[in-house]
Design brief:
single chain, alpha+beta, 9-stranded mixed sheet, two-stranded antiparallel ribbon
């Protein structure tokens, strides 16, 4: 499935459980997330997911179009790391739309959800036996409100990974990812090596606050204030 103009419309045709969403949190990258959703695979707690190879990670070239997408996306309140983070440029922005089935959410009807993938740096695809691929050094994924269960629900159903609080909001670590839950249900997931990920979580700041008419949230600010009117 190839993106058209940076957008993919993905609709799930089978119900899937919270375990699939855990796979989305832990799997490294945009393409991997599509595979989890499309195939309906249930990730095991002990499974090791692919991580970025430092020897195959490059700064990349700043994509001004990706910057514009981050600053104007209107589906959710976007947190990002600016145009560059620790020498890694924002090289790509990708949007995905998908249907959350009522069988999965427990709601009366299906509903549409969206995600924004922000890729920092780049890597050279290598043939690992399943076709050329690689994991970018840093990714930030913003999902529309309530696209993921609350962390307590994930822990209760999955039985692993303990929720905690960071910058005033709930968070959870799964393999190569840290996910934060905003007050309105928007989630922000950071994929990176542990040291980079910890620094990135602290550096997250609002991108589209001006477009949405919301107050700015700077690096290190309490995220519980995200989305307050100016």
């Amino acid at each position: 499935m190839m993106p058209i103009n940076g957008h993919i419309n993905l609709k799930f045709v089978r119900p899937f459980s919270v375990f699939i969403l855990i796979g989305l949190l832990a799997a490294g990258g945009f393409a991997a997330s599509i595979v989890w959703a499309g195939q309906g695979e249930k990730p095991a707690p002990g499974r090791t997911y692919r991580v970025a190879d430092p020897a195959n990670s490059h700064p990349g070239v700043l994509d001004r179009g990706a910057v514009e997408v981050a600053r104007t996306w209107d589906k959710a309140r976007v947190l990002w790391l600016g145009e560059q983070f620790q020498g890694l440029n924002l090289t790509k922005a990708q949007t995905v739309e998908y249907v959350l089935r009522a069988e999965m959410t427990g709601e009366k009807e299906d509903r549409l959800a969206s995600s924004l993938y922000l890729i920092y740096g780049e890597c050279t695809p290598l043939d690992t036996g399943d076709g050329p691929s690689c994991v970018p050094p840093l990714q930030v994924i913003v999902r529309t409100p309530n696209a993921l269960p609350q962390p307590e629900a994930i822990q209760r159903q999955a039985g692993f990974s303990t929720p905690y609080r960071v910058r005033g909001v709930p968070a959870m670590d799964l393999q190569t990812a840290t996910t934060l839950w905003m007050p309105d249900g928007t989630t922000v997931t950071v994929h990176a090596d542990p040291d980079v990920r910890v620094a990135a979580v602290q550096a997250l700041m609002s991108a589209n606050h001006a477009a949405l008419g919301m107050g700015e949230v700077k690096s290190g600010d309490d995220l519980a204030s995200l989305g307050r009117p100016r």
